[in-house]
């Protein structure tokens, strides 16, 4: 194995540092077994002592691992491999925070004023109504807080349940067998097998490394991946590269390690308290939208109260002394405070997040923060990987190709329709089939295995003459062509797939009920090649690998796009010395990269010929033909050297690594970079997921562009893009597909030629793209932590007032970004296919041209290029969601506004993403986008429902009372009940509304412009709905007075002379009682009008007849329950005598509220006509001012 970066040799360590003595046998009890181990020093010298001592300390063996019988004893001593979860939030603390945060702070102030208005300001005749008002405010605050806490706890429990849906699996060696177990079952001493994309399941010490690189930034702050080694590189435990830490990400290579600490005993477990203490929820866009709403309300409230007191002090109290007393003005201030506050909004936000959590749970979408869902509403581009995201990631080898025209079509199992047969026919069929199977497995398959696993494979074998164009036998064992057998041998040896015992972890299944089964585990392409050899060609792969042991491997990575393995071939001649044994180097990967490393190729007649440009062109042509059908093509080449040559080659590489010489050559871990012999091609079919085409079309209807960003060949990517409707007939076929290439003009100068359907349309000289800082918040935090741990780092302390101001500003304003804000581009109706090799030549003009296309495919991209693509989209004001399942997708997932990982992907990708699709269903992304749009829609509807009645219709009675000298139309108590009871239940019903029919045909919202509160929404809420509702309330209010014989001029501009000048037929006490009734009339009228406002507001553009609440997709029966509650509250406080006496209300005759029905229906009709006009004339003035 490759042990790089050796600084300290194990042999030079003083073994006296190891406090180990030979312990008793494994059959002893757990207490006696571990009594000889000094646990206090396990993390002090476990990285220094020789590996043999590590194995003795943990009673394990690197070849066989722990025994299954021994594991329970170890687990009893060390516990389960899981971190102690943070304490559940203390319910009383949550309630306390809810009581004194947000709107409740303002309501407490109103409650205090109510008590002061009772005493001492109410002396000498304090009004019991003011005391009751203060008590009601406290009760409402408490009930609202309890409701919000309850909804928060439901959301927390639902999100917490996500982590239990699918446990993390890890591969271990126990009893000499490799198997996958749940990571929580790991114990110290387990031998774990590590590969690229894994997350280390515990603290461990590496015992073998093959190009292994680990990202430890979460613990050490080191942003670059660390090359793992077997030997110690530092006496400091945290700095030695032979130690891997729990939760570290494996970014490259493979290896093995022995577990040294689990759960709370790991480094991460010991740091968990610090981690929890420093963690906090980031301020999301949804937080900022609500905070802007709160800021608007607070400023409006303060402004209104200032106007109120200025009016009273400068004019009213002087010219109309006694009309409104000091104490009455305090009560009016309470009415202003309560009137402006949309108390139902916080409850609506909490409830809508709970509903979203339930929907995500049903859709099997894991979101790390519910607030991130609001980002879905703005997504304008989905940059998606192909393999495993758009396709099923279930590859099947369909063809094997070699030479320039030889092809073997892999037989696929055919399911024949069953026919009725007699019992005798059934017995005869079964017996003959069994005999044939036994004969074939025992003769043909055994012969094939023997030929592939013997040293004679390097010698020419008699081959049956196969003429060009001749149909080959479907039985692989009958094909004697050496190139074909080399391909099968390479598929078996240059392959990391293997059978393992796997615990079948189903979503939501109890860990104790999981079943174990034997399954092929590995990369999709490796698994396909494994199944080809094992199922279609009947090779005993385990035997082939045993007799041809692997010496070294360079694992596949997204930069090289190939894998190299070295295996020592079996020889039947024992006289051949070890140094002269044959070592087979097998290289497989992307054809356009692999073929360039070949100098020869093997022909159909087993002869080796020179691989010239014409042959390469022919091979690439075969690749193109396969790619047009959506097939993925893998090339394979080989090189044979002696064992002595191999050892010298690896030793030279190690010496070069020790000398730290850097000559800018590619690092292939000592393997040769060229002079390989081309063997042939494998054609693999990975069909698209059946739900993807419809999901992509739905995204297109939602005006969201879906861009494919893949590492596959452009021809394959283009074919799959057409199958899943990323490239459509309407644009790609009818209008054309654009491409560009870096070529040279007549003056031999480099120029970018832009083509449309292979026809030159423009030339552009390559320039330099403007530098962009694509670091995400996560990456910036890593760099900050890394710099903070440096010795020379100096932390500049910011004054507290600047920190406080920055924190307040962050609550309402989007954080600054290094990516320059720009306007969105105009799209052109063409498709474009861009190869990764051309991306490095793109300047700003080229990025503008490429990203303006409606249909985009990026092929043969590297992780750095995928990250660049995401950043360039962001520079052009696009909100980008990135999907991916591989380790190479992690940087782009972190940088994107929304990172979407697949459950079947690597742990690295799942750690980097904001959400994980547990069912790997691409269509779930579209459902999530619809959920995000529904969330935004419903919150806007809640706001536009609350503002007209909750503020506009309640502040004007106070101002009309002051300015026009009329009786107060709405008391502070009734305003409080209206805002905190009637409107709250109705707004909660609004949150449960279903999506409108056109919700997925609208353009994505623009985050910088489309806020929860904007001028269009305020204009509609106040100028249209608010004024209409105010007019309705005052109409009923005046109707009552006039009908009672008090003419209009008798209560307008009368101020302190109401009932006296002009004279009315009622006494002062009777006028006070009538005022209570008139206020109740206004209150009931506004409550009733809000019912009509609800039905008008529940749809933005759709007619109520198409989206009715009674049946169909728009059904919402919760609103009728809310209406019943609201009507019941109205009856309770206006018709019950006790409420009339304590809260100064009065019984309301029905006839005075009936005009509201006419006004309400009128508003409903007006709003329906407005929506009809918007639907028919989407560019008219009414549509432009629509909310």
From TrEMBL:
Question: Which keywords fit this entry according to its UniProt record?
Answer: ATP-binding, Cell membrane, Membrane, Nucleotide-binding, Translocase, Transmembrane, Transmembrane helix
Q: Can you quote a single GO CC term?
A: plasma membrane
Would you say which domain of life the source belongs to? Eukaryota
Its BP terms in the Gene Ontology are: intracellular potassium ion homeostasis; intracellular sodium ion homeostasis; potassium ion import across plasma membrane; proton transmembrane transport; sodium ion export across plasma membrane
* Subcellular location(s) of the protein: Cell membrane
Membrane-crossing residue ranges in chain numbering: 90-116, 128-147, 293-314, 334-356, 942-964, 970-992, 1017-1042, 1076-1096, 1117-1138, 1150-1166
Query: Which Gene3D superfamilies does this UniProt record tie to the protein?
Result: Calcium-transporting ATPase, cytoplasmic domain N, Calcium-transporting ATPase, cytoplasmic transduction domain A, Calcium-transporting ATPase, transmembrane domain, HAD superfamily/HAD-like
Q: Which residues form the Cation-transporting P-type ATPase N-terminal domain?
A: 45-119
Membrane topology category: Multi-pass membrane protein
Q: Which PANTHER family match?
A: CATION TRANSPORTING ATPASE, SODIUM/POTASSIUM-TRANSPORTING ATPASE SUBUNIT ALPHA
Name-wise, this protein is Cation-transporting P-type ATPase N-terminal domain-containing protein
């Amino acid at each position: 194995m490759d042990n790089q970066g050796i600084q300290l040799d194990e042999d030079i360590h003083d073994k006296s540092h190891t406090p180990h003595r030979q312990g008793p046998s494994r059959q002893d009890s757990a207490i006696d077994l571990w009594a000889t181990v000094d646990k206090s020093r396990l993390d002090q010298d476990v990285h220094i002592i020789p590996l043999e001592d590590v194995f003795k300390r943990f009673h394990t063996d690197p070849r066989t691992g722990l025994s299954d019988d021994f594991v329970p004893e170890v687990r009893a001593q060390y516990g389960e491999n899981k971190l102690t979860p943070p304490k559940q939030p203390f319910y009383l603390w949550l309630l306390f925070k809810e009581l004194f945060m947000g709107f409740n702070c303002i309501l407490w102030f109103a409650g205090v004023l109510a008590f002061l208005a009772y005493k001492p300001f109410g002396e000498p005749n304090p009004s019991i109504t003011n005391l009751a008002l203060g008590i009601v405010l406290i009760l409402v605050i408490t009930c609202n807080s309890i409701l919000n806490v309850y909804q928060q706890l439901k959301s927390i429990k639902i999100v917490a349940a996500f982590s239990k849906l699918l446990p993390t699996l890890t591969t271990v060696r126990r009893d000499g067998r490799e198997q996958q177990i749940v990571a929580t079952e790991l114990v110290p001493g387990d031998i774990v097998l590590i590969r690229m994309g894994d997350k280390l399941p515990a603290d461990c010490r590496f015992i073998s490394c093959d190009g292994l690189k680990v990202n430890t930034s979460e613990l050490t702050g080191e942003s670059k991946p660390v090359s793992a080694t077997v030997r110690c590189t530092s006496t400091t435990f945290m700095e030695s590269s032979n130690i891997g830490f729990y939760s570290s990400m494996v970014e490259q290579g493979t290896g093995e390690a022995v577990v040294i600490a689990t759960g709370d005993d790991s480094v991460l477990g010991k740091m968990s308290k610090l981690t929890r203490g420093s963690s906090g929820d980031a301020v999301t866009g949804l937080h900022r939208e609500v905070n802007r709403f709160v800021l608007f309300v607070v400023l409006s409230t303060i402004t209104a109260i200032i106007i109120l007191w200025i009016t009273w002090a400068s004019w009213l109290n002087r010219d109309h002394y006694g009309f409104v007393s000091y104490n009455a003005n305090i009560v009016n201030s309470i009415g202003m405070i309560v009137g402006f506050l949309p108390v139902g909004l916080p409850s609506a936000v909490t409830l809508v997040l709970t509903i979203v959590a339930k929907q995500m749970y049903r859709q099997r979408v894991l979101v790390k923060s519910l607030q991130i869902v609001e980002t879905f509403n703005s997504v304008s581009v989905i940059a998606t990987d192909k393999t495993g995201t758009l396709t099923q990631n279930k590859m099947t080898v369909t063809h094997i190709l070699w030479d320039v025209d030889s092809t073997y079509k892999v037989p696929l199992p055919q399911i024949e329709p069953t026919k009725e047969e007699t019992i005798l026919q059934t017995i005869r069929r079964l017996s003959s089939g069994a005999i044939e199977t036994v004969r074939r497995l025992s003769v043909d398959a055994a012969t094939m295995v023997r030929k592939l696993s013997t040293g004679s494979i390097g010698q020419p074998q008699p081959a049956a003459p196969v003429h060009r164009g001749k149909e080959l036998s479907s039985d692989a064992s009958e094909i004697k062509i050496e190139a074909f057998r080399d391909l099968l041998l390479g598929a078996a040896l240059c392959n990391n797939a293997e059978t393992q015992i796997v615990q079948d972890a189903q979503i939501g299944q109890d860990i104790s009920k999981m079943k174990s089964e034997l399954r092929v585990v590995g990369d999709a392409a490796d698994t396909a090649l494994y199944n080809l050899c094992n199922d279609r060609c009947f090779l005993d792969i385990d035997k082939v690998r045993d007799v041809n042991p692997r010496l070294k491997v360079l694992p596949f990575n997204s930069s090289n796009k190939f894998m190299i393995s070295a295996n020592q071939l079996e020889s039947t001649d024992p006289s051949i010395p070890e140094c002269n044994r044959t070592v087979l180097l097998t290289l497989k990967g992307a054809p356009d990269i692999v073929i360039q490393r070949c100098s020869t190729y093997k022909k159909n007649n087993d002869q080796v010929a020179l691989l010239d440009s014409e042959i390469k062109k022919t091979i690439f042509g075969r690749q193109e033909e396969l790619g047009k059908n959506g097939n993925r093509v893998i090339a394979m080449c080989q090189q044979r050297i002696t064992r002595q040559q191999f050892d010298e080659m690896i030793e030279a590489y190690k010496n070069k690594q020790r000398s730290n010489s850097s000559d800018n050559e590619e690092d292939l871990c000592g393997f040769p970079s060229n002079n390989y012999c081309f063997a042939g091609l494998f054609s693999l079919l990975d069909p698209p997921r059946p739900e993807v085409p419809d999901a992509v079309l739905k995204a297109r209807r939602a005006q969201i562009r879906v861009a494919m960003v893949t590492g596959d060949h452009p021809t394959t990517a283009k074919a799959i893009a057409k199958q899943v409707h990323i490239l459509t007939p309407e644009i790609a076929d009818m209008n054309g597909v654009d491409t560009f290439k870096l070529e040279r003009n007549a003056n031999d100068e480099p120029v970018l030629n832009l083509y449309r359907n292979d026809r030159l349309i423009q030339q552009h000289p390559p320039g330099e793209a403007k530098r962009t800082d694509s670091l995400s918040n996560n990456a910036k935090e890593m760099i900050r932590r890394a710099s903070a741990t440096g010795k020379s780092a100096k932390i500049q302390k910011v004054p507290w007032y600047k920190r406080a101001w920055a924190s307040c500003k962050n609550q309402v304003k989007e954080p600054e970004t290094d990516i320059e804000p720009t306007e969105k581009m105009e799209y052109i109706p063409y498709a474009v296919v861009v190869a990764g090799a051309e991306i490095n030549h793109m300047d700003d003009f080229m990025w503008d041209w490429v990203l303006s296309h409606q249909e985009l495919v990026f092929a043969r991209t590297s992780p750095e290029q995928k990250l660049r693509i995401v950043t360039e989209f962001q520079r052009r004001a696009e909100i980008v969601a990135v999907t991916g399942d591989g380790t190479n997708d992690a940087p782009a997932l972190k940088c994107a506004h929304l990172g979407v990982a697949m459950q079947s992907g690597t742990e690295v990708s799942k750690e980097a993403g904001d959400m994980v699709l547990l069912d790997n269903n691409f269509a779930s992304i579209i459902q999530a986008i619809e959920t995000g749009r529904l969330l935004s829609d419903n919150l806007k509807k809640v706001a536009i429902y609350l503002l007209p009645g909750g503020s506009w219709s309640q502040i004007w009675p106070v101002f009309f009372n002051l300015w026009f000298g009329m009786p107060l139309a709405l008391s502070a108590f009734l305003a409080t009940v209206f805002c905190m009871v009637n409107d709250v239940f109705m707004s909660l019903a609004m949150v449960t509304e279903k999506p409108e029919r056109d919700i997925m045909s609208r353009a994505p919202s623009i985050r910088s412009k489309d806020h929860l509160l904007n001028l269009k929404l305020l204009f509609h809420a106040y100028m249209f709905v608010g004024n209409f509702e105010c007019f309705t309330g005052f109409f009923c209010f005046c109707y009552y007075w006039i009908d009672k014989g008090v003419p209009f001029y008798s209560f307008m501009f009368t101020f302190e002379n109401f009932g006296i000048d002009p004279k009315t037929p009622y006494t002062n006490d009777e006028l006070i009682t009538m005022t209570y009734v008139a206020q109740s009339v206004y209150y009931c009228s506004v409550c009733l009008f809000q019912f009509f406002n609800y039905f008008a507001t529940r749809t933005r553009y759709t007619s109520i007849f198409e989206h009715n609440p009674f049946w169909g997709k728009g059904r919402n029966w919760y609103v009728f329950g809310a209406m019943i509650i609201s009507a019941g509250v109205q009856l309770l406080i206006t018709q019950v005598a006790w409420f009339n006496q304590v809260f100064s209300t009065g019984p309301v005759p029905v006839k005075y509220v009936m005009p509201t029905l006419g006004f309400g229906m009128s508003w409903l009709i007006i709003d329906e006509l407005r929506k009809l006009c918007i639907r028919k004339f989407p560019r008219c003035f009414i549509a432009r001012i629509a909310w």
